[in-house]
Each structure stands twice: as C-alpha cells, then as structure tokens.
Automatic annotation (TrEMBL):
InterPro entries: NA-bd_OB-fold. It comes from Streptomyces lateritius. This is TRAM domain-containing protein.
Length: 72
C-alpha cells in the first residue's frame, strides 16, 4: 500500500497519541480494519482514545501521522 492511498483516511485512536508517546490508531482499509502506530502531526498535540482522526502522512509499513478530525 502506498503513501497516497493512506493519506486522508479516517481512523479512531485506540492508544493515546502525544508527545513522547507511540500511540495507536485503527483505520478501515483493504476491506477491513488495521492497527497502525501513530504520532501526532502537530508535535505538541495529545489525542485521546476514541478520537476520530485523519491520516496526514504514512510511513510504510505501519506508521502514520494523524490529526484530530474535530476540535474538542
């Protein structure tokens, strides 16, 4: 899967994403749902579990940078 096809996909945080943390998100892709290691797109953001996020960058094979879809 290439980087272009991941960018813009929506996911949900399953493990806190934030500074100094390796978070986790689940993204619906390839007809199912897969877990990816996640970092915040803005280095100081902290994104809590349950938050809907957008993938802004994909580093193959299993790392994504995300931003919260909605302001909280």
């Amino acid at each position: 899967m290439d980087d272009v096809s991941m960018v813009g996909l929506l996911g949900r945080v399953t493990g806190t994403v934030g500074p100094g943390l390796v978070g986790e998100v689940i993204v619906r892709i390839r007809g199912g749902a897969e877990h990816f290691l996640a970092y915040p797109a803005a280095p100081k953001d902290r994104i809590e579990p349950g938050t809907v996020v957008t993938v802004v960058e994909h580093l193959p094979p299993r790392t994504v940078y995300v931003t919260a879809l909605y302001d909280s």
